[in-house]
Structures are given as C-alpha cells and as structure tokens.
User: Which sequence fits this backbone?
C-alpha cells in the first residue's frame, strides 16, 4: 500500500495550514541542505577510507592489476572447505 494522490494532497494542505507558505519554504530549503551535506560527508568519508569508486572519469591514477596466482597458493574458499571437512571429520 502506498500513499495515493488524494492522501498526498491532504497532507500537503495540512502542512500548508499548520506552517504557512514561507515556513514551508524554509523547511524545504533546510531539508535540501541537510541532504546535500549528508551526501557530501558520506562521499568524503568513503574517499578517506579508500573506498574510491570508479565513477570519476577524471581519475588519472593507474589501475591496480591482479597478480597471477602463485603455485601452491590456494584460494580462501578452498582453504575454508578443507577446514569444514576437517571439523566434520573430528565430530564423527
């Protein structure tokens, strides 16, 4: 269930009556600034942690290449499967 057009119209009318036209403008402006500040802080904290997405086309840094797997080095999934099997064998 969602909010239909009539319910939305009633809510907007009630807000207009309660706060007035000028106050609603201030509230909307304040919400917009708050959302922009929140998004900016999330973007800044992501860059500070090194969680930089590849969304920036102006990024001139070289991309990291995956190193070839060395012989004898197993993947983590393979190691965890061996541990689970060993644990199952101990319980039996």
Assistant:
């Amino acid at each position: 269930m969602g909010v239909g057009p009539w319910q939305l119209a009633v809510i907007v009318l009630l807000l207009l009556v309660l706060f007035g036209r000028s106050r609603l403008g201030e509230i909307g402006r304040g919400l917009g600034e708050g959302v922009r500040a929140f998004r900016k802080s999330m973007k800044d904290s992501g860059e500070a942690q090194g969680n930089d997405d590849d969304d920036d086309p102006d990024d001139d840094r070289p991309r990291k290449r995956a190193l070839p797997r060395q012989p004898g080095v197993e993947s983590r999934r393979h190691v965890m499967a061996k541990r689970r099997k060993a644990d199952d064998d101990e319980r039996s």
